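Any chance you'd type out a single protein's sequence alongside its tokenized fold?
>
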Amino acid sequence: MKNISIIGGDLRIAKLAEMMYVDGYNIYTYGLEKAKMNNNVNKCNSLEEVTSKSDIIVSSIPLTGDEININTPFSNNKINIDELIPYLKGKTFIAGRFEEKVLNKMKEVNVIDLLKREELTVLNTISTAEGAIQIAMEESTKTIHGSKILVMGFGRVSKILSNMLKGIGAEVYCETTKTVNCSWIKAYGYKPILLDELDNSLGKFDIVINTIPHVVLDKEKLSLLNKDCIIIDIASNPGGVDRNAARHLGIKLIWALSLPGKVAPITSAEFIKETLENILKDIKK
């Protein structure tokens, strides 16, 4: 299993191709022709060629932005998912965030979603949290130290993010829907706020960072924020903020998707490589 084919993807995937080559794999790519890579990484001219080289096909994270084409920022060519599928039968197709519509078309393909692998999910929280803090520093007129910051949600990313924020002196509040989480939030040194009681506190925050992937900050809640508050939404589509309402209210909103690939592509590629190697070991068993 020393041949791996890679189709599309951003800088993380381009770096992954180089890393896997250095580790002794034969790498064949398509849809990465504009990426600067080691010359020994093979560039194929068609889907038929690249998929014929290996039973392991790796692609973009996320796989698609429109449910039609694979994400290919390093290519001038569009790669239609429907055109790719016939070449994937009997192979293992590894990418990130498969939409339900796409999955339904790939019932005859062994699909592995990288973003559902626990090891990658946990490791990605680090660069996601760092990216959110970087945005907060760039966009706020105040220092993070001393700022009142609300983190919406108390999952993996929120826990890492809250710890980092506290470490640089922020006054951290964590929203949760579960009363049991309040004790953990207090134990970590943050201040808990239940969602049902959030309205009473919204006016005091300098920054709100959302991690919940469905709308929780609606027009009513947004109207309670102070006019200088900045919202950073790092949740996946559709996000947790009513964007139209935020715009009408004049609230500064930054919707920051796929932060690992933007703020730390090489580190993110290392995490993907580690996960991919675990997948290959599982396939061999």
In short: The longest helix spans residues 118-139. The chain has two domains: 3-114, 121-261.
